[in-house]
């Protein structure tokens, strides 16, 4: 027939295009960044150049976030140990937690719970949720990470004692560019939702309202 491209091939073309696009944006940015850094060293200008450098980093991180749509799905899935992924995400954010007087508590009754997935993407999911939890706590508090087995499913529960969310904010979660932060880009949860969807999981978010904290529950199919 005239159908020349299979769906998988088309998808991989979109992926390649997106990856190429990201590459084309990053290359000139790297050059700009280098010269701005040189400018900082050769002149005494630091205020403007710092803003330029910060904004370059911002563009870079937005490009990275959209790269998630460029990656092929399920191609790189393997058996992943949830507890170890959660531990490594928590360890990575420990310095930021310390700075904000946030204590991270883990509750993993079964250290051997396995799910099927792409390890780095799963780590990204928990980094995004944990980072938000820490950022939601202005004057010290607690973030609790739990693994809970429920028959054929497993829940990862991330609970914080932070600023909480209104119903209106809850509805907007996962929308690109929804942020309440001065320096936020509102892409973290969009990426998180996309990855969870690719892993045949789901996410539930609950908050009892402003200053009552927030709970994120991510559910995955259990892998025996
Ligand atoms: P960003 O962190 O850049 O703002 P995200 O997509 O990660 O973008 O989060 C979007 C918004 O969701 C945040 O700006 C915040 O308003 C809200 N949010 C996410 N997690 C929490 C949380 N644990 N507590 C309170 N608000 C949260
Ligand atoms: Mg975020």
UniProtKB/TrEMBL annotation:
- Ranges where the Histidine kinase domain occurs: 20-224
**Coiled-coil positions:** none
In terms of domain of life, where is this protein from? Bacteria
**The protein's name:** histidine kinase
Question: Which residues of the parent protein does this chain contain?
Answer: 282 to 505 of 505
């Amino acid at each position: 027939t005239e159908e020349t491209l299979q769906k998988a091939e088309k998808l991989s073309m979109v992926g390649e295009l997106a990856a190429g696009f990201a590459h084309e944006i990053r290359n000139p940015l790297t050059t700009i960044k280098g010269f701005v850094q040189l400018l900082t060293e050769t002149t005494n200008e630091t205020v403007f150049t710092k803003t330029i450098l910060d904004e370059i980093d911002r563009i870079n991180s937005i490009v990275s976030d959209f790269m998630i749509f460029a990656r092929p799905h399920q191609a790189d899935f393997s058996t992943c140990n949830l507890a170890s992924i959660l531990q490594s995400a928590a360890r990575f954010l420990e310095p930021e937690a310390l700075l904000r007087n946030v204590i991270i508590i883990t509750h993993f009754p079964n250290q051997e719970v396995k799910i099927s997935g792409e390890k780095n993407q799963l780590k990204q999911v928990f980094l995004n949720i944990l980072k938000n939890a820490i950022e939601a706590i202005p004057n010290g508090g607690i973030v609790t990470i739990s693994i809970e087995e429920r028959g054929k499913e497993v829940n990862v529960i991330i609970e914080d004692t932070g600023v909480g969310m209104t119903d209106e904010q809850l509805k907007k979660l996962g929308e690109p560019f929804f942020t309440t932060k001065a320096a936020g880009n509102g892409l973290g949860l969009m990426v998180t939702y996309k990855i969870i969807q690719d892993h045949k999981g789901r996410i539930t978010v609950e908050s009892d309202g402003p200053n009552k904290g927030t709970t994120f529950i991510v559910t995955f199919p259990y892998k025996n």
